[in-house]
Design a protein that fits this description.
about 600 residues, TIM Barrel
């Protein structure tokens, strides 16, 4: 956590940069349109959600033992009740509008809750001591780990929803539609609801109204290389998990013997697609799985949840989403659906046809920024995202630098330094009018050190094991959530995220403004390294912003930035007027010129006003 001192904007007060304002008027704004390679004709929509993702099991855990493969009793576990008003207010102060409580649904686990009437899972088909939150065991229940009183676990979740709303934030939870745990059995479903698979014809590999896919005449085989708890022994661990007939595995493996690196702990749900016969579609009459999934979504919507992050949305047919999302919005029109998506070629289809509000921008902006942060890419990756990959629907793309699936920025596997996030997070938050997401611990430089258990030392914070997250615990400070145990460098990093996200949530230009890239306008300046510097404007009739990022880990640049007269006109500004520039992000003094000193790994958001 050393050497984390953040740069402060250093600006020259010289007036030389104003020379370009004396040029004659440019062509009228109407000439700048989709034919201009520096902008798009997308009409911005204000979708600037600020989402804070927290792993519910880990967030409130104050225990710091962190024993390899430790039990709940040894390593501790966070509860719904730990996310109290103090915690929620601390999250709210960062500019957050929505909290994604990850891992709420009951899932397979090696922890024994038989005394509470919950069946014990078989370690041969559970990943990690705590289990994967994405191997759902009961769609109608919540994880007993998260309750102080297991019998009252649903009431404790409902109280968290109300508490979050009382603190003026909305609630998102996971919806895992593609697969369930091999031990799935709902004991909490409403009366009269048939459980998944209960009425399946198991003699058929595929039937439109079966909930699962079967391999008739074959028994499931536990992957030979799977060792559930390493040197320890898990419950029922004997390589003899019984499943007859075997069911297809969650990552579309139609074999009774999935490999150890498959999602072997899960079974694939059948939405009426016959994968083994040319992916033939059987969507009429409406498949039973569609109806069951709709009813599950209705159940949680009536718990006053405000939206769903839909796991592996592209593994479920778009026709299902096209049907179910409008059905849910009849009940709650402002319900939010976020799709985990990785195929850029299908983005537009899942937004327009599938009715998703937002999709992950992982393979585009995240991957491009990751390369930049690691010194492996250029800012051309950013240009490609807005000009090609998400052109026309950027306001529907969720941007982030960390989540539960990705490596921590501060880990040696990613950037090794949380400062690398300063330019990247600024671009992520301000490039368009879509939502931005922050993962718990990111804002204090959590590096995810250590091998927790099933989750090896891979730069990620485990979702499979019981664990205390050390740098996050310093911010939590025993439940005060005041950052009292953070280093000075961590406090500066947290302050950066707070300033950025608060500005993002409040700025008119960022929330609903148009966009124009200034790379071409500045590429002749010898001090403007177009591969490592990125500059653009965001503007509305009420506010004009200039955003500058330096991705270099070690180089300071001193360009004289140029905003061409035609762009000034487009922004509603006069090319002959003098302007002042106030760096809102770094809260620096107002200056009267764009002679800049851009420190390594720095970012600046200047508000432009007439002098």
């Amino acid at each position: 956590m050393k050497n984390l001192v953040l740069p402060v904007a250093v600006l020259s007060l010289g007036l030389a940069s104003f020379s370009f304002y004396q040029q004659p008027p440019a062509p009228v704004a109407e000439t700048i349109s989709s034919s201009d390679p520096n902008t798009t004709d997308e009409v911005p929509q204000d979708h600037k959600l600020v989402i804070y993702q927290l792993m519910t099991r880990l967030f409130g855990n104050k225990t710091a033992v962190n024993k390899h493969y430790g039990t709940l009793q040894e390593n501790g576990v966070g509860k719904f009740n730990d996310i109290n008003t103090t915690a929620l207010q601390a999250i709210k102060k960062m500019g957050v509008s929505h909290v994604w409580f990850t891992g709420v649904l009951e899932h397979a686990t090696m922890t024994n809750y038989t005394k509470d009437g919950i069946t014990l899972d078989d370690a041969d088909v559970v990943k990690g001591r705590a289990g994967s939150p994405y191997a759902v065991k009961d769609y109608y229940d919540v994880d007993p780990d998260l309750a102080v009183n297991v019998k009252n676990r649903m009431q404790e979740f409902e109280a968290l929803v109300k508490r979050t709303h009382d603190n003026d934030m909305k609630v998102l939870i996971d919806f895992i539609p593609n697969h369930v745990a091999r031990t799935y059995k709902s004991d909490a479903h409403p009366a009269g609801v048939a459980d998944l698979g209960e009425k399946d014809d198991k003699t058929k590999a595929f039937a439109p109204n079966n909930n699962f896919y079967y391999l008739p005449g074959k028994s499931f085989v536990v992957p030979a290389g799977y060792n559930p708890l390493g040197p320890l022994t898990g419950p029922k661990e004997d390589k003899k998990f019984q499943e007859v007939p075997a069911k297809a595995t969650g990552n579309d493996v139609f074999s009774e013997a999935p490999k150890v690196d498959d999602w072997f702990e899960t079974i694939k749900l059948n939405y009426g697609v016959d994968y083994q016969n040319g992916r033939a579609k059987h969507f009429s009459p409406t498949p039973d799985t569609w109806l069951k999934m709709r009813d599950i979504l209705i159940f949680w919507t009536r718990k006053d949840v405000d939206g769903f992050r839909c796991d592996m949305a592209e593994m479920v047919p778009v026709e299902f989403w096209a049907w179910v999302i409008p059905e849910l919005k009849k009940i709650k029109p402002d319900l939010i659906f976020i799709g985990e998506a990785y195929d850029a070629k299908t983005y537009k289809m899942y937004i327009e046809q599938g009715h998703f509000d937002y999709l992950y921008d992982k393979v585009g902006l995240y991957d491009g920024l990751r390369r930049l942060m690691r010194g492996e890419g250029t800012t051309e990756d950013i240009t490609k995202v807005w000009s090609e990959e998400s052109r026309g629907f950027a306001s529907h793309m969720l941007r982030f630098l960390e989540n539960h699936d990705e490596q921590r920025i501060a880990s040696k596997d990613f950037a090794g330094n949380p400062r690398a996030a300063i330019p990247a997070m600024t671009v992520s938050a301000t490039l368009a009018t879509g939502p931005i997401m922050l993962y718990f611990g990111q804002h204090v430089g959590e590096p995810a050190h250590g091998a927790e258990g099933f989750s090896s030392e891979d730069g990620r914070t485990t979702i499979f094991d019981y664990w205390g997250v050390p740098e996050h615990q310093k911010w939590m400070n025993g439940g005060k959530f005041d950052g009292g145990k953070l280093s000075d460098e961590q406090k500066q990093l947290h302050s950066f995220y707070t300033r950025l996200l608060t500005l993002t949530s409040q700025s008119d230009a960022i929330r609903r403004g148009k966009f124009y890239e200034l790379q071409d306008a500045n590429n002749l300046d010898q001090q403007y390294n177009q591969r490592q510097l990125y500059t653009f404007v965001r503007y509305t009739d009420k506010q004009k912003l200039l955003i500058v990022a330096n991705f270099s880990p070690d180089k300071t640049y001193k360009p004289t930035l140029r905003i061409p007269p035609n762009v000034l006109q487009l922004m509603g500004l006069s090319p002959t007027q003098f302007y002042t520039y106030t760096d809102l992000l770094n809260q620096a003094p107002t200056v009267q010129a764009l002679n800049l000193t851009l420190a390594p790994q720095s970012a600046y958001i200047f508000e432009i006003k007439a002098k």
